[in-house]
Amino acid sequence: LIDKPVHAAFPLWGSIIDDMWAIEADERDGADLVGSEWLDRAVQVWRSDGVIDNHGKALDAVEGGEIQGVFVHPRQHWVGVSLCKRRSLLQGTLWLLSRRLVPFKEVERLVGKFSFVFSYRAPLRSIFMKVYEWLEKRRKVKAHLVDVPADVWLELLMACSMVGFSQFYLDAPWATRVE
Q: Crossing angle of helices 104-118/129-141, nearest 10°?
């Protein structure tokens, strides 16, 4: 299945290590919904092989559910990190940029969070050219508090301005593959 393109219509399914998901749309021309049945069968097979499922993470027929840290909008059909989490990332980054000296580990954490958020609009990852170079150099020095250079500061600010675009649309006519 990995070598085949994603199905062009709902239902969709996926798996990451021991987490599975299925996404369906209620308006599938009267067809029966099958996502819950698929997942139930998969869990039964996993259990027979000794894999323990985490029932606490199970979502069934949930509108606007979050799967593995990713929000699936129920009506607009976009997928990405929730707007609330993106807002928190934006606020945290602007706070950090307002400081003269900042903990190096906090900059690393923010860049890691941006990398996850930007995975839902892959071209945005290219914003961090100077940031990645600077992080690599600073890791070798092992400084605790750092002064963020102007070019790194500017890329972090640019990332803030783009965080609202970090999503993709499941029903966009040009989106033939989910990455």
A: 150
